[in-house]
Amino acid sequence: MLTSAKLGLAALMAALLLSTAVSTAPANRLSVSNQAIRATWNNLEFTAPGVFTVRCRVTLEGSFHERTFSKSHGSLIGAVSRAFVKEESCVNGLAQPKRLPWHITFESFTGTLPRMRSVRLLLSRFRFLLRFSSPIVRCEYGTASDNIIIDASLREDGEVLGFAPVEGSNTISREEPSDLLCPATGRVIGPEGQMMLLATTDRIRITLI
């Protein structure tokens, strides 16, 4: 009887230890509620302070490669396959996306696990043509080494509340062919946009697993 009691106690302790190990194990992957995504900004700015500021409504469409991905810096997790600018919405010029697809990689997160406050994604291999009518100037921006970090702010349940370029990690460089009047660098600035499931108004969720 004593032996059975000892065996039962040992089994209980083992189960408790296993349960504790599982509950305290760090989550090393992220999950997205949907792979097909659309990101929109009503007023995305392309600016070189003191030289030009072009504002346009911009929409990016693409997908995550998988529903789950590693929480590892530099992991290639998706691509932007289509980009649109609503030309009639533009102020002080026009912006035209070029050279698709663009790459999306995982950069980092903010907050203390398990509560993430935002997920930072890096956009690379992009290019934009900016045109100004007075005078007529054509500037292409986006070199092979350019990266823009986008901060996706999250609710407690992982729903993406907003989506904006991170100041200090939003520089774009002049690429050829460009007119001589084009500044060597500019920036992409915007108020928070929206990230949703493609062709719907459903917000995307990003959660730890």
Whole-number total of structural domains: 1
Low-confidence spans: 5-9, 11-25
Write the element-wise H/E pattern from the N-terminal end onward. HEEEEEEEEEEEEEEEE
Tell me, rounded to a whole number, the average pLDDT: 88
| Beta-strand segment tally | 16
Structural class determined from secondary elements = mainly beta
Distance between the termini: 43 Å
Globular, elongated, flat, extended or rod-shaped: what is the shape? elongated
Helices, by number, come to 1
For the largest beta-sheet, the strand count, sense and barrel status come to: 13 strands, antiparallel
Quaternary structure state of the chains depicted: single chain
Describe the structure.
The protein has 209 residues and is mainly beta. The protein has one domain. It is 11% helix and 57% strand. The protein has one helix and 16 strands. Strands 2, 3, 5, 6, 7, 8, 9, 10, 11, 12, 13, 14 and 15 form a 13-stranded antiparallel sheet that branches. A three-stranded antiparallel sheet has the order 4-1-16, with no helix packed on it. Strand 9 (127-133) and strand 10 form a beta hairpin. The longest helix has 23 residues, at 2-24. The model is unreliable at 5-9 and 11-25 (pLDDT under 50).
